[in-house]
Amino acid sequence: MRERPILFTGAMVRAILSGSKSQTRRVVKYQAPDLVDDDGWPLVDRSIDGIGEVRAACPYGQPGGGRLYVRETWAAPHAYDHLPPRLIPQDARIHYAATEDRGGLLWRPSIHMPRWASRITLEVTGVRVERLQDISEVDAISEGVRQMRDGSECWVGREGPRGLVTPWPTAREAFRDLWQSINGPDSWTANPWVFVIEFKRIKP
């Protein structure tokens, strides 16, 4: 069974751990014009000369055996600060920035997290392709946005400095705010094709 890495921000790691996040959207790398095949998948141009369009293959696996291990911001004890990740002993105590508020640690980027240090494994349960802006209200909630804790009907996509939040009237608008905070201010307007990856967490 092949396991593939996938990166998540601290907020999204917390959403996965709480059980509120069961979807993620990732931009299809090779974008074509507004062309889709009979099954609704985008036709993507992978050729050098612009000729030949093929169905996009999801790099995050498929249902029926596909698994993902989550990479997140992490740290090892100070005794290993001088070592590259590959040389840190696998029995070292690993700290995770998403759930540990600890100062003084040498936090390492998620991209450098080795497989053995990952604490979250996901099983792919569904894959489809759609335009980013086609996300539904239900799917936006599955992306990990949450209602305001004050009991109002507003939704929150991301937290700012010192926990400050911007309330939005719908989960979809909160997801737009979250998406732009990760991918840039023009990323929503671009409305790219995205892989919609549905997953469930495999408990240790």
Q: What does this protein structure show overall?
A:
With 204 residues, the chain is of the alpha+beta class. It folds into 2 domains: 3-72 and 118-202, Hypothetical protein (Archaeosine Trna-guanine Transglycosylase, Chain: A, domain 4), CATH 2.30.130; 73-109, no CATH class. The chain is 16% helix and 25% strand. It has helices spanning 10-18, 137-142, 171-183, 187-190; strands at 3-7, 23-27, 43-45, 53-55, 67-71, 74-75, 95-96, 121-131, 146-147, 155-156, 193-202. It has a 5-stranded mixed beta sheet. The two termini are 17 Å apart. Mean pLDDT is 86; it is low at 47-54.
What percentage of the residues does DSSP assign to strands (E)?
A: 15-25%
Runs in which pLDDT lies below 50 for 5 or more consecutive residues are 47-54
Please describe the biggest sheet, giving its number of strands, its sense, and whether it closes into a barrel: 5 strands, mixed
Fourth-tier CATH superfamily name of the largest domain: Hypothetical protein
Please name the CATH architecture of the largest domain: Roll
The string of secondary-structure elements, in order, is EHEEEEEEEHEEHHE
Which overall shape is indicated by the principal axes computed on the Cα atoms?
globular
Oligomer: single chain
Observed structural traits:
2 domains; 11 strands; two-stranded antiparallel sheet; 204 residues; Archaeosine Trna-guanine Transglycosylase, Chain: A, domain 4; 4 helices
Topology (elements, then pairings):
Layout: E1 3-7, H1 10-18, E2 23-27, E3 43-45, E4 53-55, E5 67-71, E6 74-75, E7 95-96, E8 121-131, H2 137-142, E9 146-147, E10 155-156, H3 171-183, H4 187-190, E11 193-202
Parallel strand pairs: 1-5
Antiparallel strand pairs: 2-11, 3-4, 5-8, 6-7, 8-11, 9-10
